[in-house]
Amino acid sequence: MLDTFALPEEPDVADLVQSGCGRFPIAWVFVLPFAGGEGRITLNSCGAQIMTTKKAFCLAVPAILGGILFSLAAQATENFQANLGPAPLTAANRANIQGRGSATAVLDGRKLSVSGTFGGLVSPATDAKLNLGLVMGAPGPSILDLKVSQDVSGTVSGELTLTSAQVAALKSGKLYIQINSQKAATGNLWGWLEPQHDSAAPGVPQQGDWYMPGLLND
Fold it and tell me: What is the mean pLDDT of residues 40-69?
């Protein structure tokens, strides 16, 4: 249903607007050119409003609001990656700590989706964790559980909800994935989550700008 009603020649978009959808505050405002003058699109829980200096239309069409909000949400996601390699080695554990893997993560608000693969372990994986280090490269305590294949190769994944402090830690390079195994119960593979970036293969010169990890971020 389409409702139309007159507005003052120069409406104040900060005011509450009366329409067939009721009175509601403006949440977002987009300024666009319209024939005969300037127009504004405002979004709120009712739907979308298209306002010009002459008329305003309340379009109670969820698809309009959903499409624009979907676009805004897509822009808000952030992508991360981790190179999973052997945890710290000593003469005593070197034979049991082997393997490689990789993982990606998508941050959407406070929701973190982790997906990765690994292989080459000497013994089956037992569990996987998301850990919080003091800085990148310095180990720290486990904060959340991940799912992992109970095998010498497989997948690691998780759908996690982070706190605001954990989101800040992720963005400053302090969160890392750790996979433990039967013969390396305190760490077989680990890798810090870093912003998504191009990586050159071993022995291949890096082209263009180099990515520099935030090793000492607070």
Answer: 47
The pLDDT of residue 206: 72
| C-alpha closest to that of 190 among 115, 101, 116, 104 | 101
Query: Which segments of 45-99 are extended strands (E)?
Result: 48-52, 55-59, 78-86
- Of 12, 15, 43, which Cα lies nearest the Cα of 30? 43
**Residue 157 pLDDT > 60, yes or no?**
yes
Domains of the chain in start order, with CATH, are 2-75 (no CATH), 78-195 (2.60.40.200)
Q: Work out the pLDDT band at 67, boundaries 50, 70, 90.
A: low
Q: What's the pTM?
A: 0.64
Yes or no: say if 49 and 42 are a contact pair by the CB < 8 Å rule.
yes
